[in-house]
Each structure stands twice: as structure tokens, then as C-alpha cells.
Amino acid sequence: MKKKIMKLGLTAAVLSTSIVQFTACQNAERENPLLQESTLPFGAPEFDKIEVSDYLPAFEAAIEQKRNEIAEIVENQDSATFENTILAYEESGKLLNRVSRTFFALVEADKTPEMGDVEKKVTPMLTDLENDIAFNKELFARIKQVYEREYDKLQGEDRKLLEETYKEFVRKGALLSDKDMKRMKEINLRISDLQTQWGDILPEATNDAVIWVEKKEDLAGLSEADIAQCAKDAESRGGKAPYAIVIINTTQQPLLTSLDNRDLRRKVFEASIHRADGTGKHNTFPIVVEIAKLRAEQAELMGYPNYASYSLEKTMAGTPENVYAFLKKLIAEYTPKADAETKAIEEYARKTEGPDFELQPYDRFYYSAKMKKEMLNISEDEVKPYFNVDSVLENGVFYAANRAYGLTFKQRTEIPTYHPDMKVFEVFDKNGKSKALFYCDYFRRPTKRGGAWMDGFAKQSRQRSQLPIIFNVCNNAKAPEGQPSLLTWDEVTTLFHEFGHALHGMLSDCQYNRLSGTSVARDFVEMPSQFNESFASIPEVFDHYARHYETGEPMPTDLKERMLESINFQTAYALGENLAATCVDLAWHMLSSKEIPTVEQAPEFEKEALRQVGLLNTQIPPRYSTSYFNHVWGGGYAAGYYSYLWTEVLAVNVADTFAKRGALAPETGQDFCDKVLSRGNTGDLMQMFTDFTGLTSPDASGLLKARGL
Fold first, then answer.
1. Residue 402: enclosing H or E segment and its boundaries?
2. Are 251 and 577 in contact (CB under 8 A)?
């Protein structure tokens, strides 16, 4: 969801005199808006004033301020206490957090070459700072003193803040020897540099993987809207041909469901899977191998056999063994269903292609869509006119949030954004009290990385009197001027999914920034988002947003029934690609530093890892292959991609609880908000789940049923 540095856990600040003077020295003509308190509501970023040249001096000033604040804690001659050490540490670096959150939001969503140049300079500065703090022996000694003296005396969020702060330092290596500390610092710096390189190479690789098409007839099968989009994409990428098929972040590509030209389907698929491996000019395997080896060494320095064991210790799952036990049960139940699904699709294709036709991965979506059309009399082009992005957002996502949680939304057109495609809404609770700002940035562009995510320019904190400023980012195609931007069903559920994360941030009600919002374990953080997807198909919600973009008429009952029935048509693929990606992630992080394969061995390593768990299936490749697995190598999901499946179980259990109590009943939503969404990481996560659902442990029995399997 976000870069590690954005997790410093610190927000907006009142500037010291020294910072203002620093700004004046740097630029006599204008004050740096990043170093001034914003005059906008909530302290929102003043994007109409910020220039790229402002970021580097802002980081330099904010880092200096953070260092001074840490020095004040260390040099305090009074005995260490919760107030003068833990709380002082929690409140340090608010300026740096504000600058970081603004900057890295743009690096992810609108990374121009100029922003990339700043990132290369800033990243090592931030890593040096983080190292210096993590291995500051005097600072840790004070934190340790408070932990030993006051932990049993403190209660509630104070105790949780102390616990999280102490454990964070321990996990980063505060108890290591001087020699091992030095090595850990070197590793941290190198990983930071490698992830910056990854962030440059992968978007370029994905953009360069575009398939150029000379003739419109080669795009037969696509709708006129899709063809117009291909023409627009070609124009925006230099016009090397009249049409371009753009590659998205996942292995499979949506256009393969309707593209008649088999050779072109093959080219699209191969461009996707080879975008960043050794067969193209972009090769991420050297980065992958080095990061994997460095992570394994980190774990070994900390006394763990591999990075997965080290990373999973702080999650709900706890150990790799628990994760594998969970996955093996799913794989055993999934495999025969996947084999039957593949056989059925191939047999269907042979009716028209002949008895010797062999189904390929680039054929699967195409013939599955034809089967669905024939068996259920439904196609994507038939339903897309009812999924206008604006209606899905305001009449679907917002409507569900209003019915379940009493929230209302008012667009704030006067608040500046970093891109003209964005919208900003102020969020109000059921009593009309302002709760949050919400930004949405839904359309793809070459400067945006692939995928969809949630983050915030500021997290909620009562300690700081800070209300949350949250944003969602997606990569939907923006229609040519004058045409509606229509979504697929998958894109509809993605909007609901990311807004579930947004709700987790917006409805937070915590004392401390470090504990608020989505600051929870990876295998819990995806639960609110996956659960929120369930609102998309609730009849009352669906009828409210699924309206024809021209007439405003709701989707006809017959079409709606066929469409909802089709949601679970041949869903083994979706589960399989997720399982495969999960096992690829774990395989890399179950290795010791001596077991990491070479760059040349890396492609075969992935195949062997999948073979060992029974998931090597050319028909169902991983959702993300090693060379373009951004969650793992560029994001925060190393040894944690399993969390999507783990939390899906939690989400199904929560959805069942909502259904029993009334899915749109205000009292049900309020209870979920009180016991889960508002609490951040202030308590035991399993207990939160139990408090709402009544279950003492997650019930996985409903997962396959929920997926139609």
C-alpha cells in the first residue's frame, strides 16, 4: 500500500524558527510551502503552491529538525518516563512525515523524471536517518528503561504505544552487537537503493511493453469504446502506430477476454509475462536476487532461519508453518476444481477450433468469456454501460458508506490536487461532523505505477488534533473526451475494495498517530477492504449505482440476475493465480542467504517452487510473476502476500455477520466501526475480530463457497 519510509508514523507540524530561517536562506524570493503550515482544511497539501524544487530543501530541513528532536530526548538529564521519552518520540518528526507523505504519494501516482531525480537524492538521506535512530543506543536505553519500569503500570493506548515502540526498535536490531549493527545499517541502505531502482525500472518496463497495432481490423472483438481507448493510448505514448494495447500490472490482461486475433492475444500475454525479465531490455532479476539475499541476511542477523520466519512473527499467522498449513488446505480443495475448469474451457474451444486445439493461457479468458456468453447469455460489453465510474463512486461506494455508517460526502472543488483528474470530498458523520478529506485518483497515466492502493496525506490522531486525509488510487482507463469512463465488474469491486481501506483510515479514532487507521498487521489490514467489496453486490446498493450512462435507467432485472450469477462463473482461475503468487512470494523468503538462486537460476526457481506445492500450471500462472511482483520487491508485502487470502476468510466471516444482523442496518455498521474500524492497532486484532463476529477463530469453510467453488 505504501513505501516503508511513509510509515515513520508522524504528521503535520508547527515550524520552528530555525526552519523558517533555513527556508529564507534557501530561497529569498518565496517561502517553501512544504515548510509552512497549510491554510487549507485539515492541513491538506497546497498542491497549487508546491513545486518539484521545493521537495529536496524541505526534506533537508525536516530531517535536520527530526535529528534535533531525537537529540533532545537523548540529552534529557531527567530519568526516562513515558512522557519525556515515548511520547516525545511519538511526537517527533511531524514535519518530516508531512513532507514524506506528500512526496511519496506523487512518486507512486505521478512520478515525473524530475520527481524521480529527487527520489534518488532523498531516499538515502531518509535511510541514513532511520538507521541513525534505530541504532541510537542512548535513545533505545531510555525506551528500554520505560518499558521495564512502566509497562505494567500503563493502560490502554499508552501501554500499546510503549509496547509497539520498544518492539519496533528490537526488531530493527537495537540489541545487536556493534559489528552486526554496522552490517544491518549497510543492508538497510542497500535495500532502500535497490527498491528505488525497482520503482524506476518496473513502470518503465510496463509502459514499454505496449503492443502497437497498425490496423483496426486486428482489434476485432473489442468494443468501439475499447478501440477508442487503444487509439487514445497510442496517441499518449508517441503514436508509433494508430493503436496501442497497454499492459496493466497483473499477468493476465482484461482485453484478452474479447480480442479475436489469437496471434495478437499471444503477443499481449507474452509482453506481460516478459516485461521485466531477461528477454527484454528491462531486467529486474538482479534486483530481486540481491534484495532476497539481503533480507535473508537481515533475518539471520536477528536470529531467524529465513526472512519469512522473521517477518511473520508480528502477524496474526505467526509462523510460516501456519501459513503453509492454511495454503495447503486451500490448494488441495482448489486443484480438482481448477483442472475441471480448464478441461471444460478447452473442450468448449474445440467445438469451434477442432479436436486438436490446445488451450493456451492467452486463450483462457477469451473462450471462458464465450462460454459465459453462451451459458449465461452475458458479456462484459453488455454490462459496462451500467458501470459509469462516477455513478459507481457516488451512487455505490458512497451510498453504501452512508447506509452502513451514516457518512455523507461533499465535493470540495476549491481544494487543489496534484492532477486535474482527481476529485476531493469532505466526509461527514451521521451528526454532520466533519470526519475526513477523501481524494480519489482513478485514471491511469504513464507516470503512475500499476495497481490500486490507499494511503493518506495525514493519519488521524487525537494527540495531534489531526483528522485523516485519505486517498485512493486506481488505474482505470479514462475514456476519450466526451465519452463516459466505464468499468468492468472487477474494476467496480476494486473501487469498493480500496474504499474499504479508506474507511479504515477515515473512521479511525485513536490517540496516537503510530497506532491509528491501517497501522495493523498485513494479515488483518486487507480484511476491511475485502469485506467492503461485499457491498457492491447487495441488491439495494447495486440498483442504486448500476444505471445506464445515457438514460440513467437501472440495469434491467433479467440482466442484473444474469450478471450477478456470472460473478462466480469459472472462478478457479482467480483463486489459483492468487495462490500461485502467494507461494512464489513465500518460496523466495523461506531461503537462507546461502540458498538464494543466481540471476540466471531465478526463472527456474519460480517454476520449481510452484511445482513443489502443486501449482505449476501453465494455464493458471501467478497473478504476479517474480520479475514484476511489486507487492513483494517494491512494496511492503514481502512474505505477506498470503494476507489477501487469509483476510478474505476474515472478510467472509464479517460479511456473514453483517448479513445476519442486517447488511445495511446502521446499528450493524456502528458496531463494526466501534469494535474494528475505529480502533486501529490499539488492541489485540483477533480479539477485535471476535468482539464483532462472536467467532473465537476465523472460519475458513465459507471461503470456497463465497468464491463459487
1. helix 398-405
2. yes
Residue 185 phi/psi, 5-degree rounding, is -60, -45
Reply yes or no on whether the pLDDT at 702 is more than 90. no
pTM of the model: 0.89
> pLDDT tens digits for 226-254?
999 999 999 988 999 999 999 999 999 99
* Total count of domains within the chain: 4
Task: Name the one residue in this structure whose C-alpha cell is 508485502.
Answer: 637
Range of the domain at 117: 4-134+136-175
Q: Is the dihedral of CA 679, 681, 682, 686 positive or negative?
A: positive
Residue 680 lies in a domain: no
The fraction of the chain above a pLDDT of 70, given in percent, is: 96
User: Among 607, 641, 675, which residue terminates a domain?
Assistant: 641
Q: Tell me which of 108, 426, 491, 498 is the catalytic residue.
A: 498
The predicted pLDDT at position 10 comes to 30
Q: Could you please report the per-residue DSSP string of 292-323?
A: HHHHHHHHHHTT-SSHHHHHHTTSSS-SHHHH
Of 376, 387, 570, residue with least CA distance to 476: 387
**Joined grid coordinates for residue 164:** 509497539
- Note if 380 is an active site residue: no
Q: What pLDDT does 317 receive?
A: 93
Q: Which residues contact 660 (CB under 8 A, 6 or more apart)?
A: none
For residue 312, give the CATH number of its domain.
1.10.1370.10
